[in-house]
Amino acid sequence: MRKKLIAGNWKMHKTIAEAVALIDALHAALPFVPADRDVVVCPTFTALSSIAARPRGPIGIGAQNVYPESHGAFTGEISPAMLAEIGCAYVIVGHSERRAMFGESDAFIAKKAAAVLAAGMSPIICVGETKQERESGRAQSVVLGQVAGSLAGLEGRLEDVVIAYEPVWAIGTGLTATAADAQTMHAAIRAELRRIGGAAAERVRIQYGGSVKADNVDELMAQPDIDGALVGGAALVAEGFARIANYR
User: What 3-state class would DSSP assign to 243?
Assistant: First the structure.
């Protein structure tokens, strides 16, 4: 049985004071987490230390990005060791916004994922197709290509990796893949993971992301290959995120 993972990606929202207020409200709304799931929030870099210093409760912390070197002349970047020292357990890599806005390639994402693993954390590797790619019938080939490319060299560490399938056309748009469509893609990703790593694929958690809300999370989480959610906008409201984390 794979343990579900509910992760909140706060993106570029919340000052330190606002982030502390949100995590305190979230702890109040989510005083415990069922044993069959993990819950984590991924705030901005500036807020990570302050959130890590709050009473921890059942909610873990993760980061939204990382640079795949331990130190050096990389102005503005954050190393895996810096994130591990704060207490991060997860790091998001390859989010579609970084792929599109910053030109991150599968090879660079694989390098980031390897660095995250080497620092004792788990990468959440994001994959997903655009609206144009889906409408042209290329969704599955695009996504599976991203999976294979972003896992290059990590075949022996698959069970320590999380994959997040986020169709780009559903991120922040209010559109969501149907539970059946999401399951179809998740099953295809699982099959690709079997090709890459054999039996270890059964232990890899594959999240769904893209306008996950309280009113659709239950159906999504009921699918056999959906192992959690990567939540964007809905993670910025304590009560809403608590409801998602407490999916039925």
Answer: helix
Tens of pLDDT, residues 41-98: 999 999 999 999 998 789 999 999 999 999 999 999 999 999 999 999 999 999 999 9
Q: How close are the terminal C-alpha atoms of the chain, in Å? A: 16
pTM over cut 0.85: yes
Q: Residues 97, 65: contact at Cβ < 8 Å?
A: no
Residue tagged active-site, from 129, 166, 186, 192: 166
159 catalytic? Reply is no
Helices 16-29, 238-245: inter-axial angle, 10-degree rounding = 50
Fold for the domain defined by 4-245: TIM Barrel (3.20.20)
> Is residue 104 flagged as an active site residue?
no
Q: Which of 95, 97, 129, 186 is catalytic?
A: 95
